[in-house]
Amino acid sequence: MASTALSYQLEINVPFESAKQATIACNTLSPDPILKKDELTVDYTTSGSNLICLFQGVSDRVIRVAISNVLDNLKTIVECIDEFEGKEDHIFSK
Amino acid sequence: MVDLTPIAKYRAPDFTNEHEIGVGDGPHTTDGKTTQISDVVIKAGGQDRDRPTEASNSSLGQLRAKLTSLQDNINIFLTERMKYAKEQDSKDIERRILDDGVDEDESD
Fold first, then answer.
1. Which PANTHER family does the record cross-reference, listed alphabetically (chain A) (predicted)?
2. Domain of B77, in residue numbers
3. Among A9, A14, A93, B23, which one is most buried in terms of CB atoms within 10 A?
4. Contact state of B9 with A15 under an 8 Å Cβ cutoff
5. What does B41-80 look like in DSSP terms, one character per residue?
């Protein structure tokens, strides 16, 4: 069922508490390189306080792997924001 | 607490309409069904050392749990789609072999 066009698409819309949080998530995910750009593209954008991830691939198999990896990373980002946002800077000494 | 619920939309050439995938009814936890270590390893006494921490009661904690539910639902949906595609491919191969057989008979 695979075709050469990136015709298998999945868009995930993730709401955050603020536009700043959505931008942090977007900027953290964006640098991750895509190895086979002829088979898969992933675009990250923000709309207000929402993060939008668009996966486009040549097959369901290709996008499934990418989506699961990105969601794993996104959960870590959400956990970090939840844990550290609003806390004061702290320098750890030996 | 703000309700933060992620949602996904799927499009494919053989789908006339957009298919929406949600987080489901819950309860939502960070323990994903499709993201655990394999049953074989668990039965052999293995432990998941990368097991995620439990979700906090904050909005972001609940978002993390809902993202796990969404990840499960997407994985299940796309796995079903892959199975369907595989079935269609094997039917195509079967049809081609049978058609080739007919051609050979006709040429004789």
1. EKC/KEOPS COMPLEX SUBUNIT PCC1 FAMILY MEMBER, EKC_KEOPS COMPLEX SUBUNIT LAGE3
2. 8-107
3. A14
4. no
5. HHHTT---TTPPPPPPSSHHHHHHHHHHHHHHHHHHHHHH
Q: What is the pLDDT of residues A47-81, one digit of tens each?
A: 999 999 999 999 999 999 999 999 999 999 999 99
Q: What is the rounded CA–CA span in Å between residue A92 and residue B95? A: 68
Instruction: Give the CATH number of domain A8-82.
Output: 3.30.310.50
Report the domain count for chain B. 1
| Residue A17 with chain B: CB contacts under 8 Å | 2, 4, 59-60
pLDDT tens column, B53-73? 888 889 999 999 999 999 999
How many whole angstroms separate alpha carbon A21 and alpha carbon A77? Answer: 10
- DSSP lists the bridge partners of residue A57 as A8, A40
Asked if residue B30 lies in contact with residue B52, where contact means CB atoms within 8 angstroms, the answer is yes
Contact yes or no for A46/A22 (Cβ under 8 A):
yes
Residue contact A10–B13, C-beta within 8 A:
no
Question: For chain A, where are the E strands, in sequence order?
Answer: 8-15, 40-47, 50-57
Which of B81, B83, B87, B89 is the best substitution to test chain A (most A C-beta atoms within 10 A)? B81
Q: Is the pLDDT of residue A2 over 60?
A: no
